[in-house]
Each structure stands twice: as C-alpha cells, then as structure tokens.
Design brief:
single chain, about 270 residues, alpha/beta, 8-stranded parallel sheet, about 40% helix, about 15% strand, binds phosphoenolpyruvate
Length: about 270
C-alpha cells in the first residue's frame, strides 16, 4: 500500500504522523507497535497512511517489526543531518536513514528551529539532503504568537516554505509533505481552529502553485499539527486543504493514536 520513497502519493488517503519526540525506548517501541497493530484493523489503512517517528535509537526496531511482521504502519525519522558524512558528532545522515528504509523525515520542526537554532538555510539544506536520498521530508512551518497577533502569519509561513524549497526541482517538490504547525499550538493544548488552520494550509498550497504550478500544488500533502487529539482530528481533516496531521503528545499512547487514526480514516473504534 505504501508507495516507494520519492513517489508522489494520492491525496485521497489521509496521512497521520506520530512524532514521538524524545519518548519511548527501543524496547517500548516493540510493545507500542504491537498494540497499534492490534488496535487499528487493516481495513482502516485504505483511507489512512499511518506513520510513526521514533527516536533514532528505535528506528531499527520499528523496521524489523514492520518488515518481518507485515505491519501496515510505516516509520520515519525526526531529523536528518544537512551533511553527507564526516566529522559531525551526534548527527545522522540521509544515507543512514535511507538504509533503514525510513519512509519520511521531519525537517524544520519548531523545536529544532528554537532549541538548535536551525534557520531557513539549514532547513533548506536538510530538505535537499533528505530528497537526495529519496526520503520525502515532512517540512514544518509555523508562526509564533507575536507573529499571529500581528496578523503576519500567512506571509511568515509562506516565506518559510519558499526558503525551504530553494533549488528543489518540481519532481522532488511533489513528494514533499508540508506541515503547518503554529508554534503557539504545539504541546500547549491550544489548537488552531479548523478554519484558522485551513486558511494557512490553503495559502501554503497557493504558494506551491506559484513556485511549481498547479499539478505539483495539487499533489503535495499539507498537514496540520498542534495539540491534535482524537477529540479534534475529525474537524481538522474535514477541511479542504488539510490532508492529515502531525501529532506529538497524543501519539505517545498507542490506544489514543489508534483511535485518532481510525477517526481520520472516517471511522471510529470502540
Ligand atoms: C509536534 O510535535 O509536531 C506536535 C504537533 O506536538 P503536539 O501534538 O503535542 O502539539
């Protein structure tokens, strides 16, 4: 069901991505994926692509389980180095992630921009590093509260998108996933209203159209992220330009994540 990395996918299938951040060990991952596999029956995967993003130390466990046990969810990474190889202590390259068959990699998360001072130049280099290895980046953009209060959020997010895609060719751009994550909504419990999220996601798609034309703009999946839970996922993915969600806190519990994925697929779990 999952297309090979580097291939544009059908927007009719929603994309739900669980960003575990620095949670869950290698051993926890085994139990988590078994629970998620039991909790989300196969029929849901026709409508939803489910991805988990464990810490680097647990990606190999996820790979082993997904490939050997035939689980239907896929996995990816939370970050990638902008460098190919060499003296970059602590970093993990695109080639290493490709060897582990990572389906996606997050780039430009606000926590990386904030705590690791990653600017638009670094984010662009990471987008290109991922694409060079056939891994679609999940490119995060989003404004802080001051920018939102100044009503500059659309310009801010579209500028981040444009900068991150510099020197990315249309064939590659069509495989990128864009995630609108207002910083004020991440881990705060304060979610952007569906129409607020739709407004920015539509503007991001318009920018993609200006940069690459309508075919690419129509192929790119645009996600919303920021305090999404099973209680609010339904109204978010009902919006026209929102193709799924990037989920932090609510993805740590496999039962809650399974419930959320089922709702995104248009169903529910008892
Ligand atoms: C995130 O980390 O990308 C995120 C959206 O976190 P949360 O769902 O906890 O707000």
């Amino acid at each position: 069901m999952t297309p090979p990395a580097g291939t544009a996918t059908n927007r009719s299938r929603r994309l739900i991505v669980g960003n575990w951040k620095m949670n869950l060990t290698h051993a926890d991952t085994v139990g988590y994926l078994q629970k998620l596999a039991r909790g989300l029956p196969a029929r849901y995967y026709h409508n939803v692509e489910v991805v988990v993003l464990p810490p680097f130390t647990a990606i190999r466990s996820a790979q082993t389980m997904v490939l050997s046990d035939g689980f239907m969810m896929t996995y990816g990474a939370q970050d990638v180095s902008q460098h190919e190889s060499g003296a970059y202590t602590g970093e993990v390259s695109g080639a290493m992630l490709a060897e582990l068959r990572c389906r996606y990699v997050v780039v430009g998360h606000s926590e990386r921009r904030q705590h690791h001072h990653e600017d638009d130049t670094v984010v662009n280099a990471k987008v290109r590093a991922a694409l060079a290895h056939g891994i679609p980046p999940i490119l995060c953009v989003g404004e802080g509260l001051e920018v939102r209060d100044a009503d500059s959020h659309i310009g801010h997010c579209t500028a981040q998108l444009t900068a991150a895609l510099e020197k990315v060719i249309p064939e590659e751009a069509a495989t990128v996933v864009v995630a609108y994550e207002p910083v004020w909504a991440i881990g705060t419990g304060r979610v952007a209203g569906p129409s607020e999220a739709q407004e920015v996601c539509a503007a991001l798609r318009t920018t993609l159209g200006e940069l690459y034309g309508q075919t690419v703009a129509g192929a790119v999946r645009v996600l919303y992220g920021g305090s999404v839970k099973s209680d609010n996922i339904g109204e978010i993915v009902a919006e026209r330009d929102i193709d799924g969600a990037l989920i932090g806190g609510a993805s740590i519990d496999p039962d809650e994540f399974a419930k959320l994925c089922a709702i995104a697929a248009g169903g529910s779990l008892r």
